[in-house]
Amino acid sequence: MIVVVDERELVTQGYNSLFGREGVATAGFGPGEFGEWVDSAADDDLKAVSAFLLGQCSEVDMPAKRIRERSNAPVIALAEQQSLEDTLRLFEAGVDDVVRKPVHVREILARITAISRRVAQQQPSFTQIGPMRIFADGRDPEIDGEPLPLPRRERRILEYLASNASRRVTKSQIFNAIYGIFDEEVEENVVESHISKLRKKLRARLGFDPIDSKRYLGYRLVE
């Protein structure tokens, strides 16, 4: 999920539509309500955010500082008119990139991927669980060195399970990470359908079900 912060509701709604066409969930905030949310949001809700976009705000560097106190997700500022002074102030506040509008959402997604890739280079680029090698950069997982092509939603669920391999995650946590914590148009039970399909594909390749589930406790990957 991408969080968009802008004083203009028309802008946040526009990005919601544009990113939605690319299959990416967004949540839009005005600067004031965003400050309240980022200060009080649960850690799991913040982990569901893949990037923050900062648009027109009276003090755009303040949201950036608040984000950096709680999240390492990429932060991109969208500038109407770019000046050296403003750009330097934003970088000092913790912004990862400053982009002058207009800009296509695909370019924004590419920049988010590039920033995430640089961060990932400082960390393991994959998670190894038994014969499964699960990447965090959009590549299909590998089983015994052979790629296992997966639809985007199933791949992202597997990536999320791998990133939380040391603990169980609930259906709600998976839903929030994949669809966005404010998506009211999709039923949470869709997660069960995706996991069922994912299980069948993994079981066919592995010979066993690597997704352990316990009622009320959630899911986790096992070797």
TrEMBL record:
<dbReference type="InterPro" id="IPR011006">
    <property type="entry name" value="CheY-like_superfamily"/>
</dbReference>
<dbReference type="InterPro" id="IPR001867">
    <property type="entry name" value="OmpR/PhoB-type_DNA-bd"/>
</dbReference>
<dbReference type="InterPro" id="IPR036388">
    <property type="entry name" value="WH-like_DNA-bd_sf"/>
</dbReference>
<feature type="domain" description="Response regulatory">
    <location>
        <begin position="1"/>
        <end position="116"/>
    </location>
</feature>
<protein>
    <submittedName>
        <fullName>Winged helix family two component transcriptional regulator</fullName>
    </submittedName>
</protein>
<dbReference type="GO" id="GO:0000156">
    <property type="term" value="F:phosphorelay response regulator activity"/>
</dbReference>
<dbReference type="GO" id="GO:0006355">
    <property type="term" value="P:regulation of DNA-templated transcription"/>
</dbReference>
<dbReference type="GO" id="GO:0032993">
    <property type="term" value="C:protein-DNA complex"/>
</dbReference>
<dbReference type="InterPro" id="IPR039420">
    <property type="entry name" value="WalR-like"/>
</dbReference>
<keyword id="KW-0804">Transcription</keyword>
<keyword id="KW-0805">Transcription regulation</keyword>
<feature type="domain" description="OmpR/PhoB-type">
    <location>
        <begin position="124"/>
        <end position="223"/>
    </location>
</feature>
<keyword id="KW-0238">DNA-binding</keyword>
<dbReference type="InterPro" id="IPR001789">
    <property type="entry name" value="Sig_transdc_resp-reg_receiver"/>
</dbReference>
<feature type="DNA-binding region" description="OmpR/PhoB-type">
    <location>
        <begin position="124"/>
        <end position="223"/>
    </location>
</feature>
<dbReference type="GO" id="GO:0005829">
    <property type="term" value="C:cytosol"/>
</dbReference>
<dbReference type="InterPro" id="IPR016032">
    <property type="entry name" value="Sig_transdc_resp-reg_C-effctor"/>
</dbReference>
<dbReference type="Pfam" id="PF00486">
    <property type="entry name" value="Trans_reg_C"/>
</dbReference>
<dbReference type="GO" id="GO:0000976">
    <property type="term" value="F:transcription cis-regulatory region binding"/>
</dbReference>
